[in-house]
Design brief:
Length: 185
């Protein structure tokens, strides 16, 4: 019998608990593929998000009112439009409220153009309603806004008083966050 077993080679088996070199290669290849897949997907997904300038263009803006002196007008930009923020004097408010509404081409009360309790703050979209020019503040016959392109004149409430413009200067959506800060948009 010993002569019959000489041609048989002994078989070595690996237990399932041990790891082979092939198992390591499978795991390493899978890990590299997962990292490579994630590295490829991140830029693809992030390029679908809107550009930062696009987000900023439509986002609300906050304006600090505390540095604006009485009688001063500042210009900020929201959605690519100039926004006039005016700290009106008592005289300007009284002038705006004493106007006969029947004499206005686009009748609106001054109270409907400002926020209650914050009558001194006038917030307007600074685009002339005639052809889209940008009016000048504290100019014209009404000491409000004057569009030098075609002569439209607005009063201290931004209402059209004279010239070819058909409508008052628009009031953007805004809210007071505190007595000295507003959010436009």
């Amino acid at each position: 019998m010993a002569s019959k077993q000489q041609g048989v080679k002994p078989v070595t088996t690996v237990s399932s608990a041990g790891h082979s070199r092939r198992d390591f290669l499978y795991i390493a290849t899978g890990a590299v593929a997962a990292v490579g897949g994630a590295a490829t997907l991140v830029p693809l997904i992030s390029q679908m998000n809107p550009d930062a300038s696009t987000i900023a263009a439509g986002a609300p803006i906050e304006v600090d009112l505390s540095p604006i002196a009485e009688g001063q007008v500042i210009k900020v930009f929201w959605r690519g439009k100039p926004i006039f923020v005016e700290h009106r004097t008592k005289k300007e408010i009284d002038e705006a409220r004493s106007v006969d509404l029947a004499s206005l081409p686009d009748p609106q009360t001054d109270q409907s153009r400002v926020k209650e309790g914050h009558d001194q703050w006038l917030v307007l979209i600074g685009i002339c309603t005639h052809l889209g020019c940008i009016p000048l503040a504290h100019q014209g016959n009404y000491d409000g806004f004057f569009c030098p392109c075609h002569g439209s004149q607005y009063d201290t409430s931004g209402r059209i008083r004279q010239g070819p413009a058909p409508l008052n200067l628009a009031v953007p959506p805004y809210a007071f966050l505190t007595d000295t800060k507003i959010r436009i948009g």
